[in-house]
Automatic annotation (TrEMBL):
Gene3D superfamilies, A to Z: Clavaminate synthase-like (3.60.130.10)
Taxonomic lineage: Bacteria, Pseudomonadati, Pseudomonadota, Betaproteobacteria, Burkholderiales
Keywords recorded for this protein, A-Z: Antibiotic biosynthesis, Oxidoreductase
Residue ranges occupied by any TauD/TfdA-like domain in the UniProt entry: 33-314
Protein name as catalogued: TauD/TfdA-like domain-containing protein
GO molecular function annotations of the record: 2-oxoglutarate-dependent dioxygenase activity
InterPro entries cross-referenced by the UniProt entry: AlphaKG_dependent_hydroxylases, TauD-like_sf, TauD/TfdA-like
PANTHER family, alphabetized: GAMMA-BUTYROBETAINE HYDROXYLASE-RELATED (PTHR10696), TAUD_TFDA-LIKE DOMAIN-CONTAINING PROTEIN (PTHR10696:SF56)
Amino acid sequence: MNAGMGTLDRRGPAGSLLPVLIAPASPGEPLMDALARRRAEIDAALATVGGVLLRGFDVADAAAFRAFAAGFGHPLLSYEFGSTPRSEVGGGVYTSTEYPAHQSIPLHNEQAYTREWPMKIWFHCVTAAPEGGDTPIADSRAIHRRMPAAILDRFAPGILYVRNYGDFDVPWQKVFNTADRADVERFCRDAGIRWAWKPDGGLRTSQLCQAVETHPVTGEKVWFNQAHLFHRSNLPAEVRESLEDLLGEENLPRDTFFADGSPIPDGVLDEVRAVLDEETVSFTWRAGDVLMLDNMLAAHARGPFRGPRKVIVAMAEPHGNQGRF
């Protein structure tokens, strides 16, 4: 599978095969030709390794990237109930998370903080940053295998996500793509989300979601949550202290708790982050690269960067567990 597929400056744990590198038959081969010629190989790599990197293909523009992602047979998804700022490029293609360049985004599976998520996610590097800006990835099965048993047991009932939308997080109007409270309440009711409107016009939501999931095709257990990303310990210490003083602990923009509502100690999530670090795979983007992941088998992140960087994203094939909670 790897023969004759070019080079990849990959850094990661011993034994990891992420990502499978696929190169064109000749320089500049159109990306859509890869879909027709190597679809079976791509599908097999996703199901076993969890991700592929298509490098050296011609991706003319965002429309070509969109056509490639849509060519796998599922309509591209809109970014609903989002947790980070993005801009729509068009037709189900979005910018990657628009956080400041100096910030890292920890490893996570897309929308694992909800009960419904995309099974497939694509990234296209339009402009590679001159320094940093990689998209680290990791095998969610390996993370689950490496996670301490005590943490798996404690998280087994699920994770409670609490969000306060407003000046210090993405506004609820953007998260729910509406300014109509009735639309928000309808979405929350359908998704099993509890909500409360605040006197100042803000919104608080809470939802119990999975910590571990079973892949619907492979039957394998995967670590599948964003407890470490939403938890207050993910904030820089000085920012956390300021927000706790200013807003009160119950009004932090986002936080996570054990399923029974009790606090998750910082130290528990330090252990989780250590496991994620041990399983992280990094490579340097090249302009034109397309990374395709099975969103349950592989997590992704973002490194800090300097200079211009543009990565666009598409998602498809919704899957969820609405009946479990």
